[in-house]
Amino acid sequence: MAVDPRGTDIKQYLAEDPGGPVVMLNLLRFAEGGRDSYRRYARALGKTFLPRYGGEVLYAGSGSTALVAEDGQAWDAVLLVRYPSREAFSRMVADPEYQQVTRLRTEALSEAVLQATHAWRPAAD
What we know:
The protein is built from four helices and four strands; from the N terminus they run H-E-H-E-E-H-H-E. By secondary structure, the chain is of the alpha+beta class.
């Protein structure tokens, strides 16, 4: 199961850009012993890469009781990370220094969802 975006994923992500900020939904399932590796990745992300590319963690937490989910759909962790644009996120993941660190994320996870979101616009009355 893929846990990292591929080049074709990034191209589609950029092609569908509605403009403005993007909040990335991260649903994470850790591999055996993966929490420590993910903590090291998260430390580097927060210390170096989010400030460099204008990102910020809006929420990070552990999964808990799933009220509405099929068996096996509960997640170990959930993160919401805001970037000023889709382009900023794509520049971060292309950064050679980031690519040295992202292996920690890859080895930490057995399954993941990484989904771009954007705010709903107020409905016209």
